[in-house]
Every structure is written in C-alpha cells, then in structure tokens.
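Purpose: get a first structural picture of the assembly so the mutagenesis plan has something to point at.
Setup: two entries, given in the order below. No constraints added.
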Amino acid sequence: MTAKIARFLDEVRPVTPCVVVDLDIVRENYQGLRRWLPLAQVYYAVKANPAPEIVRMLVGEGSSFDCASRGEIDLCLNNGARADKLSFGNTIKKKSDIAYAYEKGVRLYAFDSLAELEKLADVAPGSKVFCRILMTCEGAEWPLSRKFGCEIDMAKDLLVKARELGMDPYGVSFHVGSQQTDLRQWDIAVGKAAMLFTALDEAGIELKMMNLGGGFPAQYRTDVPAVELYADAMMTAMTNHFGNALPAMIIEPGRSLVGDAGILETEVVLISQKGYDDDTRWVYLDVGKFGGLAETMDEAIKYRIQTPHDGGSTAPVILAGPTCDSADILYEKAGYEMPVNLQVGDKVRILSTGAYTTSYSAVNFNGFAPLKAYFI
Amino acid sequence: MTAKIARFLDEVRPVTPCVVVDLDIVRENYQGLRRWLPLAQVYYAVKANPAPEIVRMLVGEGSSFDCASRGEIDLCLNNGARADKLSFGNTIKKKSDIAYAYEKGVRLYAFDSLAELEKLADVAPGSKVFCRILMTCEGAEWPLSRKFGCEIDMAKDLLVKARELGMDPYGVSFHVGSQQTDLRQWDIAVGKAAMLFTALDEAGIELKMMNLGGGFPAQYRTDVPAVELYADAMMTAMTNHFGNALPAMIIEPGRSLVGDAGILETEVVLISQKGYDDDTRWVYLDVGKFGGLAETMDEAIKYRIQTPHDGGSTAPVILAGPTCDSADILYEKAGYEMPVNLQVGDKVRILSTGAYTTSYSAVNFNGFAPLKAYFI
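Result (structure tokens, whole complex):
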C-alpha cells in the first residue's frame, strides 16, 4: 500500500470494487529489472494489465512489448510504441492477425509448431521467429500446462525448417511458469535451451536470442525471493551455459511489473453462518472470481488482504464473491482468517492486484459491471 | 442447430467467435414450461443470458424475472418488465442496492441470513421475503457449494424473525444444482422445504410460496431427461408433500430456456503436436475459457461440437483457447475426439451455448474482445 494509493482512496472514495494502480511503482519495478538485468531487453507482457496509462509510461521508459493478440498490438501502437519494439508472442495466431501485424511493421514472432511456422512464412516473410520449447517446471503458483511449446528435437527441426521457408530463425523461448519461486528452474531451462543452440549450430544455424520469458513474482501471501535474486539466477544460468558468448536476452515480465502496484478496494456485503452447528463464517465481498479475481481459481493465487480491524483477534472465514454462482468462492481451503469484529459495510483491501485482474473481469456477469480501475 | 441459425451463419458469415441465439427457441422453451407446469410462475434467471432482446420477448410472453443485481433490475425495467414481476433473488445484496430496488417498486426478496434480513427490514419494509435453504444435492453437473442457503432450523427462526421485523414471511426457496439430471432430488428437496412449512405453521406463520429454483437442463454431451419429466417430478413432489393444499409455486429457469437456443461459431486457429513421441493433437479455437466458455472450468459443462468433417474418422484431441494463459484449456480429460482431417481455418460450431457464455466472457483478456452475440 503506497502513500499515493492510500491518499487517493481516502480523498476520492471511489465506488467499490475498484483497483488503484500506482504508476510510480510500475516504473520503479521496470527500472529495477533494467538495473539488475542490464543485458536483457524488457518486453512487458501487456496481458498482465493492458491499461493505456501503463503502456504509455513504459514507452517513455524505453520498454519493448510482448503482445498476445492483434488487439494488444493496436493498443501498443496507439500509445506510442514503435512496431520494432513489439513481439507477437502468442504461439496461437490467426493468419489474418499475423498479416495485420506484419503490415503494421511487426517483425518478431513466436511459434511452436509447423502449422504456425507455415502461416508466418506465408504472411510475415523474412521475419525473426523464435521457437518456444516445453518446460515441465515445478514451483510455479499458477499452473503451467503443456499448452505452449514443443519438445527440443521438434524445435530443432522447426528452426531448420524456418530457414528453408525464408524466415530468420532468431532464437528460443521458454517459460518457467508464472509466479515461479524455485530459482533453480532457470538453470534447468537455460541448460535445455542451450542444447538447442548447440544443435542448431551443428546444422549451420546461429541462433541469436534467448527469450527467458516471465515468471518473476508479485508479493502474494507466500514470501518470494527479491527480484535481484531472480536476476542473479538468470545471469548465472546464462553464463554457466553460454560462457562469454552470450546471445541477446529478452525477458517478458508482466506480473512482477504491475502486480504489487495495484490495490483492490472492496466492500463486505454480507457476513453469515449456514447453521447453528456450523460456525464457519462466510464473508461475501463485492468482488469475486468473475469480477476480476479469476486467479483465485482453485485457490491458486493467494492475495494478502487488509481490513480496518487488523491487529485484533481473528477467526477462519470462507471468502466468496457477490454473484449467484455457487462456484464464485475465492478461498475456502487456503486457511484465510479475518478479524472477529469485521462488519458488513467494511472496506477491505486486497493487495498486489495490479496484474491479471481488470482485463480478466467478466463483461457483465450477473449484471455486475467490469472491475473499474484508476491509474495514478 | 435450427434452420434459422444455419441460414444466418451462411448468409451473414459473422466474424468469429460469436454466439447466435434463436429467439423462437427461447419462446418455445418458455411456453413448454408454462404448459407442463401451469401452476408455476416462471421467473427467468436473467443471469443465464441478460440480452435485452430476450428480456423484451419474455416480457411479451408474461414472464417474471429473477434478478441477481441492481444491474439486472435496471435491465428488466428498461425493457418493459413491471417491478411487481421482479424478484431480487440474490441472497447477497448491498443495502444500497436493496434500497434502490425498493424505490423502483420491487417487493420480493431472497435471503438466507440474519444480517441480510436486517438490511431488508431496514430499507425494504413490509416486503415479501423468502428464505433459501441449503441442499446437498447430487447429480448436478455444475458444482453446488454451500455458498447459498441455511439449515432448516435456522431458516425457521429467520422467517419468524422476519415477521417480528415487519416483513412478510412469504416462502422458501432451494436449488438442486444447475443442470440437475437426477429427478429424485426434487422429492428430497420439496420434502425438506415442506417440513419448514409445517414448522412455521406451528409458529403461527402461514408460508404461501415455494420457490423450486432452477436446475432444468440444456442438452450438452450427456443425454438429459425431457422437460416434461422434470415438470412431472416437481408436481409429483409437490402433491406428495402438500396434498391439495399447494402453495404458490415459482420456478427460476435460465439454462433450460436459453441454453439450447444458442450456437457458438468458432474457428480453428491452430492444430499441433508437442513432440515426435507425443501424438496428442492440440486443437486451438478462437474462443476459450476467458472468452465465454467459463463453464468448461474443471471440464464441468461438456458441450457438443460440430465440425465440417463430421461422419469421417476421428481421433482424440485436447481443445484449448487462443489466449497466452496456460489454464485456458477447454477439454483435456473429457475424452473429446474430432475428425482426423480437421483443418486450420475450419469453422466449428459449439452447441447449446445460449446460456452462461456472453456475460461470462472477459472484458478484454489478452486483448481479445468479449464474445459477440446475435439474437435472431
């Protein structure tokens, strides 16, 4: 909770629920990453928070941008980013959207399959392409599936094929999982990617770029290592496996830039019990799983929560959202406690909600408006 | 797939993804319920699909409306519904929203706790209130938690308290779970609710209304009983437990009115494999979990899917959405198969997507626009 956000909430008293993002914190986080990883080019993962205010500020700082869609490309271009600062980083793209991006000047694309490579060769000829490889990393709080990436041996063949198709086989990307807290995962991942560099070198292709993805954390309920330690783990991994022949490096932070910069203010709508033999306290907030807190799915992301009564005695609660959907429960098993004298009408603040909240919120579910956001 | 929808898709060729809802089917479903359950007043669960077109048509048919929020109340009033046809059916309401509804003329409210009853007594004096009781029903495809309702003995005390507070203790509601396929659940539920009528009668309070909730199904992958059989199960349960002293009856269908009336047209964006030793086919569509198919959460709702190659040989697939979110997978374990000659660019139709799709879709996740809908 920054002083600036506290002042805003006190003075403006916005209607809840709403998120307030302190742009100074986003800037500091960006500058911190630049300081700790000076060799890496930062591509902000726009999906984490696609606010024009954030994009404009980061354009001013010299950031590049990792875009998931045509919509995000337009957002960046409309807010001052140059096309040569954009990466179309989604491995799943419509051909028409690739053509659109190419026409706008985007020349850097992700892929992980033959079909995608063929689309790229067709409508984005000569562009730089990087192949995403599969990782099976442990330690990430947000689940990582096999949805993105391919096996190393397939990646090798695809990058060779890329050159045959007239593309520029530029590099390799991986992702260790969002909110990754096990720093050893970078050494494993970089080692795997480095093998690919070697294999392609033997095939006469010199890859030039390593995309280390995201995975830097925000501060939720569990303590996380400092960003410096992440940077250190990455650079150690890179020098371990590449010596002083380091390729260009890209990182794609999203959560770590904007997560901690946001506070979600919400109101306690109801506190109740279900029966005389069941003293579980249900606390219903005016924001829930469909109103911006989608990352509480399976109780994956566990936010820190502040109430006006902190410091007094607490008791267990089940925290739920305001909709008529029985699945709209935030925390039931994660062991949340709240003050015993919490009252209906109290304002409650959910910390580190700057990432993956506003844009996740449903357009009109149960007649509730999407989560409102302020950027200050 | 109705002829009207097929013609619309062929002639208009709308940009995908989009949902097309045939209003004639919604009307037929409404009339069917009226025919099979003539004693029950139909309160359409607006949250299932809050399209003004649907509300207007149902106003014309004489329907009442179950509203989850102030937003849904405004929607109904703005589209011709009279306030005395509305129920504020969410048990979790801000006091300011109750006051707003009361001011607009709404006089029927749900509750399941003392705190909610006290809010109602304060700002909606004299209104009819019904208490939702907890059910632990088996057989529903969409998970039913303990989020709504209270135990019977608490419900009894709350309804007595309601009269003390100057409210009209009007009735009881329950919900057997959305997409409930075990028809015996209604007998269990009505039996439980009937006990409450008796208990209150002994306390000198005559309840006048039984709200049987929703639970009527749409047609997903698993076969479901016909609506007539649901109606029959309900009426049998009512006469079993109330004889010919039947209270007024309310039902709150949502899914069953609009689900089967909608078709979602989507495009195959990518088909790929992850490695040479893993022949799993990944099929990526231009709609996913955050673009309207939220009910595929934990693979709960299993939609039927049509492709242009149906009838030929099929093979297993993992179906996923287009976003960069690794959790955006529709079906991985549910055993979906698709034609072996499915192609990138093919249009695929997801059936029975008229309910809980459009309003669930994220406002701008990954830069993708919310699901577009047409009502014809």
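The longest helix of chain B spans residues 184-202.
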